[in-house]
Structure formats: C-alpha cells, structure tokens
C-alpha cells in the first residue's frame, strides 16, 4: 500500500495539495456493509487517502479500524491511514495491533494518545503515556506515522509555545505528517504553520476541517476540542436558529469557504472530517475543484455560496486575515509548497488521477 509520505511527494511534484477524508468504522447501528457504501461514494471523489478513526472504548471491536482501512484499499484502490490510540495500552495490546495492521497491508498510521478520563492521570510506568511514545514504536516498526496538531492548543494545554514544542517532539520521534484538529478560523492555522516553520518542523501539516451541522454538534466541538467560534458562525447560528436544514447547508458552505481559502494560501494538505456523510465530502471536493479550475484560468472565485456570504466568505475573519509569506506563495499555485495524491492539479480538478 502506498504510504502517505509517498503520496505527499507525488502531489507536491504535481503542483497541488492532497485532499483526504476521515471516516469512522462500524459502531452502534453502522454495519460494515454501510461503511462500505460510504467508502464507495467517497472513492468516486478520488481522494488522495482516507483515514479511519480508532474503534476503541466500548465498541467491542478494536480491529474494526484496520478492517475498514484494508477494505477501502483492497476494494477501491484508495490509500488509507488507520488511527491508533495508546492511552491505557500495554506492550501486548500495541504489539497485537501492529501485527494486525501489518497483516492487512496498512502502511500508514495516525498515532494518537486518546481522550483521557477527566481527573485520571496515566500511570508513571505506563509504556505509552504520550502520543510520541507510540509514534516512536510505530516508526521503529517501519510505518509511515502521522500525528495530531492543535492550532488552537490542546484542550489540556492551551499554551501556544508548548503546543509547538510538543509538535516538534512528535516529529523528532518519527512523525512524517500531521493532521490538525478542527478549527473555524483559518488564521489559527497560518499562525501555527509559521510557528512550526520557525521551530524546524518541516513535515506537512494538513488542515482538518469539519462542517458544523447543528447547534448540539457545535456545543460538543467547543466542549471536547476547545474550538473557538468566530463571529460569522455566531451570526449564522442566530440567523438559522429555527431552520436546522438551512443551518446544516450554511455549515457545509462555511467549510467549503475555509477549504478554498486554505487551498489558495498554500496549506500543506486538506483533510475533511466527513462524519460518514458523503454529501459533505462531495460539496467540499466540488468547491476545491472549482477553485483549482478558476486558478488555472487566472480567475478567483471570491465566495463559496450565498449562505456562506452571510458571514463566511473567503477573506473574512472566518478564513483568517494573516497568512504571512504563505499568502504570497499561494498566489501562483505552481509555486506553492504543496503536497499526497497521484493526480496533477488539472487532472484532479476534472475528477481524475494523473
């Protein structure tokens, strides 16, 4: 299976960023067959890779992640990244997970600590207290290892300098790419990317973007991730307070506006948290392909839809004001520092591979 590092290199050579999706494995009422149908619809969009979240906790099936990752690659020829968490893991459980990943031909793993139970601290003698411990082990086993990045800081560590220092530790441990936690203001990413550059972090940092689909979901995001809400989102929440369908549509268009801005300003990669809803991936891919086509013809789109214009138009506070040098780099897409996939910009914009 092609590793993410390889995909980043060939996408960079093709003059574009990679576009990837995240899905979650079967849980609750979701069957493997349903996950297969979701994957089939995502595969039609020709992503550079698909990541599969870790099926841990009370799921009762910790192999589901590797099963779905292998299924996507084997059935649709799409490279995959399997998530793996280490909080509470033992040497034996991690060794078993590694053997399972290797047996199923998975080359890339996103190494995560996992969510800590409030008030609980890891044992001092735990073999995998932090993500960097798992990263080191996976790298030693020959995997292409990715890790999480936190542009607004981790909910347990809001110190910006410390967040960048932790990122450098993960790179030094063997991480060869990063995917950020969701954010709604692109300025956080640009600031974080510049700080990472200054700290000597030279591997790609892909932007994780998740549309907001409703008030309850936004509340969970703020509580679990510490994501801040810029004024455009607050305005959209007020405008569509009694219209859930329009709020969902506005959230997707807002995410599309974010992605187009990130694309145009030369972000390292574009990763969409699809929540297993193919229409989200479809809308985001369509917006990005339209942006590529416009850039190729010397045009700039300037907006991402009527609802997004209510508060999320590209260039507004929602999409960040200061991109520093990356803004000028992205003015010419052929000169942007971009990165996975097998398609050139023109081929990908038309929906195919090179």
TrEMBL record:
Keywords: FAD, Flavoprotein, Oxidoreductase
Pfam families tied to this protein: MTHFR (PF02219)
GO molecular function: FAD binding; methylenetetrahydrofolate reductase (NADH) activity
Involved pathway(s): One-carbon metabolism; tetrahydrofolate interconversion
Cofactor(s) required, per the database record: FAD
Top-level taxon of origin: Bacteria
Catalytic activity line of the entry: (6S)-5-methyl-5,6,7,8-tetrahydrofolate + NAD(+) = (6R)-5,10-methylene-5,6,7,8-tetrahydrofolate + NADH + H(+)
Biased composition (Basic and acidic residues): 326-338
One Gene Ontology biological process: methionine biosynthetic process
Region span, Disordered: 323-354
Residue stretches of biased makeup (Low complexity): 339-354
GO cellular component: cytosol
Family: Belongs to the methylenetetrahydrofolate reductase family.
Stated name of the protein: Methylenetetrahydrofolate reductase
Provenance organism: Gordonibacter massiliensis (ex Traore et al. 2017)
